[in-house]
Amino acid sequence: MNIAWILYPVKVLGTGNRIGIWVCGCRRECKGCSAPELWEPQEKYEISLPRLKELIKSIVSEQKIDGFTITGGEPMEQAKELSELIIFMKSINDDILVFTGYTLEELQDFSSADVNSILASIAVLIDGEYIEERNIGVPLRGSDNQRINILNPKYKDHYENYLKTTHNQVQNFTTTDGVISVGIHEKDFTISIAKEIIKNERVR
Predict the structure, then answer these.
(1) CATH number of 3-203
(2) In angstroms, rounded to a whole number, what is the distance separating the alpha carbons of residues 53 and 69?
(3) Which of 81, 169, 196, 198 is deepest in the core (most CB within 10 A)?
(4) Domain limits of the chain?
(5) Model pTM?
(6) How many CA atoms lie within 13 A of 4 on its CB side?
């Protein structure tokens, strides 16, 4: 698979302390995307499924895992490998949340065994393309056209209660790639960051 980041504990993309996985590769190139650096697959991010599973096992062996969040990039562009990975994750914790730019109906129309396996195995699918003009701060979504599909009835009350009490936040991780800011970002957040950098440079 082409996987840019594996982060823990992710606290801003679902409930509790989660393992977050960011796939690399997305043909949509939405205006205002929070991670345009993940549009193109990169050779340095190639990882085998056995190795990826070992990395997840190493986190699970030392930490309490409340769930998994998979985003990107576009996860469904790697549906074959992702379906196998999700079956493995489900054996650890079945609170698996996936972000996709496709709608649920589009995914169902694919009639793909791998996509169907993913939909049957995850708890929540947040679907729909990101539309910058519709970024108005709705919980757990980049823009208000996106939908939260609770696919595992076991988690219906759990997520409905969470959505009533949460608000969008960002969380920063320091990695070998520098500081990675994850979460649901405000509209024009890149402009705000640039202004903050300029302000700090002037202070120096």
Answers:
(1) 3.20.20
(2) 15
(3) 81
(4) 3-203
(5) 0.91
(6) 23
